[in-house]
Fold:
Amino acid sequence: MPSAISTINGDPSVQELRRELAEAREQQFATAEILRVISRSPMDLQRVFADIAASAARLCDAYDATIFQVDLGLLRIVAHHGPIPSLPVGDSSLPLIREVATGRAVLDQRTIHVAHLQADTAEYPASSERARLLGFRTIVAVPLIRAGAAIGVITLRRTEARLFTDKQIALLETFANQAVIGIENARLLNELSESLQQQTATADVLKVISGATFDLPRVLDTLVESAASLCDSFDTAIMQKDGDVLRIVATAGTFRRLAPAPS
Structure:
C-alpha cells in the first residue's frame, strides 16, 4: 500500500518536502540576518547592500546580483556580488533609460524579466549589447519602491537562458523591500542627527548671547562658525551695511583668511 506522501499520484515525496523546508529555513535565516544588520548598523548601508546582494545571488540561484540607487538621473552601483563582470561599486553608473532593462524597471516601477537579453535587441538595445559583451543572458530586475517612488533596483543575472521561478522572484522582491528599509533607516537617522546638531548649535549660540550681552564680536563669531559647520560651507561671513558698502563683521573659513584685520 502506498504511503500518504508519494510521487505515484503526483504528490511531492518526503525528500522533496524536506528540501523545500530546508530552503524555506535558509531564506528565513538570510532575511532575518539582514534585518539584524540593519538594526545593529543602520548607517552602514554598504554592508547592508553587500549582504543583500550576496544572499539574493545565492538563494535565487543566480550567477550574480547588483543593487543600484537612483542618483541625479543615473543608476549608481552600490553593491555587486558574483563572477559576472560589473562596473566598479560607488562611482560607476548606468543611464536611466527604457533601453536598459534595469532602467525600465525603475521608470515603470515594475519587475522586468528577460529570458535571453542578448537576443532582445529591439526591446532593450543598450542592455542587449552589454549582455553580449559581458556574457550573460537571463536577467530579472525588481525596483526599490519607497513612498510610491522608485529609488533604485536590484538585478539578478544568469549566463544561460533560464528564467527565474516565481518563488525566486518573490524572494528577490523581499530583498528589494529590505534594501528600502535599510535606505529609509539611514535617511531617518541622518535627519535626526542633523536635527540634534542644529538644536545643539542653536543652544550654544543662545548661551553665548545670554552670557556675553555686550560682547557682540563673540556672538557673531559663534554664529558664523555654527553656520559653516552645520551647512557644510567652505566659508561663511556676516556683513553689515555701512553707508554704501557692506562691511565684514564676522568670518569663518576662507573669508577669515581674506578679511582685513579689524581696525
